[in-house]
TrEMBL record, chains A, B, C:
Signal peptide (UniProt feature, chain positions): none
Reaction catalyzed: Ca(2+)(in) = Ca(2+)(out)
Keywords annotated in UniProt: ATP-binding, Cell membrane, Disulfide bond, Glycoprotein, Ion channel, Ion transport, Ligand-gated ion channel, Membrane, Nucleotide-binding, Receptor, Transmembrane, Transmembrane helix, Transport
InterPro entries: P2X2_purnocptor, P2X_extracellular_dom_sf, P2X_purnocptor, P2X_receptor, P2X_RECEPTOR_CS
Subunit structure as annotated in this protein's UniProt entry: Homotrimer and heterotrimer; functional P2XRs are organized as homomeric and heteromeric trimers. Homotrimer. Forms heterotrimer with P2RX1. Forms heterotrimer with P2RX6. Forms heterotrimer with P2RX3.
Subcellular location: Cell membrane; Membrane
GO BP annotations, alphabetical order: calcium ion transmembrane transport; response to ATP
UniProt entry tagged with the keyword ATP-binding: yes
Protein name: P2X purinoceptor
Chain ranges passing through the membrane: 42-62, 351-373
Membrane topology: Multi-pass membrane protein
Species assigned in the record: Salvelinus namaycush (Lake trout)
Length: 409, 409, 409
């Protein structure tokens, strides 16, 4: 595509330049414009000033600020996380209980997105059986005729059996086949159960690759030693290279309160920025951490505020029936988001950018010519020397014309 | 790199322009080309036409259509999903049973990729023991000598014990140490068990960031209120902003049949396109949803068609032995794929693109010169005025030459 | 933005060209530079040589090598994996035991990141109770006064009860409330338990999309048939298109030893490169596989070397108490990383790159002029014809000047 295009461009140029002469002669001829030189401080200054501005733009802005002489590549990354810490809860449902990482970290594999349980509604000993639905506008009933056997509401908890049962002493609701007893999720503890979660720490291991530049690096920098890593904690000022983060510190950096967020849960982004200028030595290229809350905490248009999900542990009783403990888990999901663009000097973008900027140098002439021929006192004098008017109606084709054609204007 | 390059370019230009004169004089001189002006309607029209075409390209195509004056950035995104709905199955293995989100949604965490169980093969009460292998070419045996103790086929179900046992009344197969009884996965139900899954809904919460432009937005738009969100369902025409999707609607938009897909499973992509022109006000930038089946449904070259995986629930009997229920789960995995590029006006790409297009304006001259000097009647007349031939063999260097050199051609 | 900018550029050009004449006349006039033609083999050769170099760059480097005439798009991908194989272990804790995919593959869903268990520390029958801490500097005690009730170390295993208990016959440590007995993770088996894991295979199904070009493709190529897929194994030389990979082969390609890596675990990247030139027919665009270890295996600065995580299976005893089996799982996490950029011919980048390169053609003139006017013998002769000096102090404005002004220099 490109080749063809280019071929025709050069053909055109040659033909424009050599017209009907033979190509051999053409090759050893050099054409250059005839110029007039105007000695004018004003025009000269304007000309140099604009030239300077364009050069200043190219050097200052395009090269230094925007680094537009660089080829870029996007980061490819792999993340491993490991949470540490134990918490203690004492509730009526569960009694005194210690929570370790196998209990509160879901999923356990240490992927780039991990969840720390901070609050929960536990519904133990559920079995497949029937029980009255939770009361709401569509489930409250007076008699069996208000309930439709087999009906299955997307927002309900099971399949209606067609019976109307006592939910409490005052309220009757339709009976459903479901995991009973049903979860009552109104009584969310007002203080997060796993208070100690704020002191948990997470080790984030992140290795990145820029495939175009064959560049590999990890967030555990080579000058960091083992003993330091065993006891350090990330701190933007004192320990900016430590890859171990205290959960509360991360939430604070996102300008949130840990204990408030822990009640209803939320999603916290751990952003690792690997933007690098690879024209500099490799050790200048390091991770920059930042933290931002990703879910909506604003109370308007708030369906399912915070972050929670339900999961179950399944058991079998001695007679072979299945029971389960349903847990509605509230907590903070940490999403490690790695991004960045690396740039490195490359001929193509350099030539593209410098070339494009140089084009504007030729515009300077247009501006200065306009200035010279309209704004200066001697504009007619300049104009006469610059332009030679050839009259199309004059039929003396082939006859040499003196410079006096100026006068015919 | 750039600086050095540029320095030498400017040096070169100065020297070409000022030759041996002092720099001070040079600074206040302005050079401009001497031109001939041809009054020709044909050439003039051609010239303006080509100029117009180039300007038209720059304005019309590069700027309006391709927005090449914009700097671009790729989206960074975080997704939370929440499935709702209950289903009912009645099979000989499990009896009447209600399925809620904790049962059919795997993994439960509500990540960007979630799975809804629609069909399954359940093998309850497996224990670590020995049983005859499923019959196939390599496992059918006549006597113990056909079975190799300790052999372990990658496509088999366990470690051979070296015995040949009755699999059925007519077939003998090698015995294996495995989770027994073995799963027989030929009897996949012909109708998806969890028929009701098509009415399940999923709420997708998606927040995006364009880090270069410091732009943040969510798919729950600010003008959508809470009460609307509690009862809306996505519909491309009537409710395009509702982030709650009915599973069947999504599958239909991908031009698939839900109940057919539910039998063997599959992968459905929920593509959210956040491509935005950030030169416009922020509220014009919104998510565009589309749906596409991502796995291969074409029957040719079909290993493991559909989408399924095996998982187990582990139990302990009263005497401490471990048993498990193995489930081969068929269902639809929904992958929320967020993509997009945002563009915003930036000086560098503007200058690069405009500059490059302007270069072509100078090509117009080449074309018109060629036209003027070869195709017009008075080409010799024009040529004489345009070109002044300096003969290299002429030794009168330093002597002023009159315009009569024209005649020596 | 662009439009306005451009408008002013064209205005400027028109005014520079037409000065005070009426626009109508201007439209049908064509201006072209007056040139001198120098017949010089040296200058001509230099001129043509530099022109050739620039054209060579544009065609050879920018177009052929860098394909800078192409518009690019980043890949969007969906991955499904399925592991096959069974392993056998015989340990004092668990006895003889067969492991199938539901046991060792975590999570089971077949996502782009999957984990194969190869080694483990099993701590069965843990219950919520009290036991002495593992001995280390901060937990060893002489009497109860050394232990602080309620203290909770982030690196400890539970909440201290304030008592000092016999850990062994010689060592006393503070008692903690925790899942007891505690896991002793020093005794990691020196040979990976699941030796057979090296023969497991994984089927990787990967479908990619380039949304800008509406291009979709899968890594199971259309010319591959079902029977081949049932028995093939990926081999870079003999079976480069087979999407079924033996685990050991992948680890070997990453220049690691499977059995060494299996002991402490690790992370292996399966990189699928979909970089494509879409100007060629579709079937030239295929996946290129490569493998690289992603975690740090260098012993320096090695916190938590390898890759492991803890998870638990929960049981209930007949009296309703919860017990669990804690498993510290070591193994290899395989991360399927899909990347790539597709390019396709597009007008905008072509014009930008060709235009920018053409700009440099005009620089050739600057170089040749400098050469002509400083390095040739007849430089004064050339200079006189090229430049017409207009003296600013000369007041004869409006009076025609003959070419003899040359002599006034």
């Amino acid at each position: 595509m490109c080749n063809k295009f280019f071929y025709s461009v050069t053909i055109t140029q040659k033909m424009g330049g050599c017209s009907s002469q033979s190509c051999h002669r053409c090759f050893f001829e050099y054409e250059t414009e005839r110029m007039i030189v105007v000695k004018s401080k004003v025009v000269g200054s304007v000309f140099r000033l604009i030239q300077f501005l364009i050069l200043f733009y190219v050097i200052g802005y395009a090269c230094v600020v925007q680094k537009s002489y660089q080829e870029t590549d996007s980061v490819i990354s792999s993340v491993t996380t490991k949470v540490k810490g134990t918490g203690f809860t004492n509730t009526s449902d569960l009694g005194a209980r210690v929570w370790d990482v196998a209990d509160y970290n879901i999923p356990p594999q240490g992927e780039s997105s991990f969840f720390v349980l901070t609050n929960m509604i536990v519904t133990p000993n559920q079995t497949q059986s029937t029980c009255p639905e939770l009361p709401n506008q569509s489930t409250i009933c007076m008699s069996d005729s208000d309930c439709l056997e087999g009906s299955n509401d997307v927002r309900g908890n099971g399949i209606q059996t067609g019976l109307c049962m006592n939910y409490s002493e005052t309220v009757k609701t339709c009976e459903v086949l479901s995991w009973c007893p049903l979860e009552i999720d109104i009584n969310l503890p007002e203080h997060a159960l796993l208070v100690a979660a704020e002191d948990f720490t997470v080790l984030i291991k992140n290795s990145v690759t820029y495939p175009k530049f064959n560049f590999h690096k990890r967030n555990i920098l080579p000058d960091v030693n083992s003993s330091y890593l065993k006891q350090c904690k990330f701190n933007r000022k004192t320990d900016p290279d430590c890859p171990i983060f205290r959960l509360k510190d991360m939430v604070s950096e996102a300008e949130e309160d840990f204990q408030t967020m822990a009640i209803r849960g939320g999603v916290l982004g751990i952003m690792i920025d690997w933007s690098c200028d690879l024209d500099w030595p490799e050790h200048y290229c390091g991770p920059k951490y930042s933290f931002r809350r990703l879910d909506n905490k604003i109370p308007e248009n708030n369906v399912a505020p915070g972050y929670n999900f339900r999961f179950a542990k399944y058991y079998k009783t001695t007679d072979g029936r299945e029971t389960r403990t349903l847990i509605k888990a509230y907590g903070i999901r940490f999403d490690v988001i790695v991004f960045g663009t690396a740039g490195k000097f490359n001929m193509v973008p350099t030539i593209v950018n410098v070339g494009a900027a140089l084009t504007f140098l030729s515009l300077v002439n247009a501006v200065c010519n306009w200035f010279l021929l309209t704004c200066t006192k001697k504009r007619d004098y300049y104009s006469k020397h610059k332009f030679t008017y050839l009259d199309n109606t004059d039929d003396n084709a082939g006859e040499p014309l003196g410079e006096t054609t100026y006068g015919t204007r």
